[in-house]
Amino acid sequence: MPSPLWAFDEIVRATGGRAERATGAAVTGLSIDTRTLAPGDLFVALKDQRDGHAFVTQAFKAGASAALVAEGYEPQPDDGPLIRVRDTLAGLEALGRAARERLAPEARVIAVTGSAGKTGTKEMLRAGLSVLGPTHAADKSFNNHWGVPLTLARMPAGTRYGVFEIGMNHPGEITPLTRLVRPHVAIVTTVEPVHLAQFPNVEAIADAKAEIFLGLEPGGAAVINRDNPHYERLRRHAEAAGARVVTFGQDARADIHPKVMELAADGTTLEIELAGRALRYRLAVPGSHIAVNALAVAAALHEVGADAEKALEALAELPPPPGRGTRIELALAEGRILLIDETYNANPASMRAALAVLGTVPRSRYARRIAVLGDMLELGPDEKQHHLALKAALDAAGTDLVFACGPNMAHVFAALESARQGAWTERSDELVAPLVAALRPGDAVMIKGSNGSRMGVVVEALKKNAGA
């Protein structure tokens, strides 16, 4: 049986709630979704895309220990213990705040934001720190207004290292989340033209990302990408927040930069100098963008006083998160192809990075490089230019065929010479048939697009076609 995460009375006190229908048993986890709820969880009835109060009774039938509900909820006969609060999101935030406050003084917390690379960096930190002590990090990409407090509230009291991903779509969204997390180290992986539909320019995005420094604990460190053109802007924000600035990147002026960076199709070997010591470590995930983020990981490990050498060894066995470069070999009738699944979202920086990785696939094993691309969304008035700019990355990667869908990808598709034009369609599902018809044994196929482009449909269709 899982260890208790919270006592029922602790939750009541932390949320300022009112207990109803008797005192509940100890809570072993938290859930906001009855489809993934485990017995012993506290069910939090959030009002988001759907009103969680409609699922409270279902949560108890699935084994929930208790439910956090808002004033006005009418209990049903099959309901169990309730904790009633004015607002369930505020109650979840209060529980997350209590979880952060109960950590031991020696515990260390790291927060990560950036236009790209947040989840991969978080997962590298999770893997490395887990070999050193009890480590807690967000599931998936739980980095928004409910994901961060949910991750906090799920954090066991005995956690030695906490790692949190913080995202945003609009100005001001990071500030309340970083003040909940109160990190000792805050990383900004990069600033890129993402969510420009909600920002006047990229400088405003940099300002929004820099909000993460506002939650730093006294004496905390801001870990900033020295290669990024907005480095100086970020540095000024960090210093204004009282942070100690630590830099990483390929720039030789960065505090943590590679003495050696050996890029290969199956990973990267890095050699760095950290606190006067030479460290050499390997990454199982290929790509220079992954390698640069691994420099930020090394910097953060050092800043929290962790054994960086031991922690970095774990990265040699760490696969990419789902949809972020996962490699699958699929069988065709006459042979095999390599599928590179990059379907978890896209922006200009991550698209260029994914194409660069495709360009490292060895011709000796995979004769053709095929890019399957969906629209990058939320890029604002310059969306056409951002898509057209991908032609240079397609050329540099040595792509042999390009399949594309969406009105914006039509621009770059039209700019290609006819020999490289596989097919263009309006929707991702329409792309499946021409792509399958064109595939040959020995092809390497990389698929990427924004979530709204639904490129996962193409991945699943290829798997189904191959019987995977």
Mean pLDDT comes to 95
Instruction: Profile the largest sheet.
Output: 6 strands, parallel
pLDDT < 50 runs, ≥5 residues:
none
**Proportion of residues in β-strands:** 15-25%
Compute the number of strand runs.
Answer: 20
**Major sheet: order of its strands?**
7-8-6-9-10-11
Proportion of residues in helical segments: 25-40%
Look at the helices and sheets and give the structural class.
alpha/beta
Treating each run of at least 4 consecutive H or I residues as one helix, how many helices?
A: 16
Distance between the termini: 35 Å
| Radius of gyration (Å) | 23 Å
Protein described:
The protein has helices at 8-15, 56-61, 88-101, 118-130, 147-153, 174-181, 202-209, 231-240, 288-303, 308-313, 348-358, 383-388, 390-396, 409-415, 432-438, 456-466, and strands at residues 18-20, 29-31, 41-44, 66-70, 82-85, 108-113, 135-137, 161-165, 185-188, 221-225, 244-248, 258-264, 267-274, 277-283, 326-331, 336-342, 368-374, 401-405, 421-425, 443-448. The longest helix is centred in the middle third of the chain and has 16 residues, at 288-303. The mean pLDDT is 95. It is of the alpha/beta class. It is 31% helix and 22% strand. The two termini are 35 Å apart. It is globular. The strands form 4 sheets. Strands 7-8-6-9-10-11 form a 6-stranded parallel beta sheet, sandwiched between helices. The chain has a 6-stranded mixed beta sheet with strand order 15-16-20-17-18-19, sandwiched between helices. It has a 5-stranded mixed beta sheet with strand order 1-5-4-3-2.
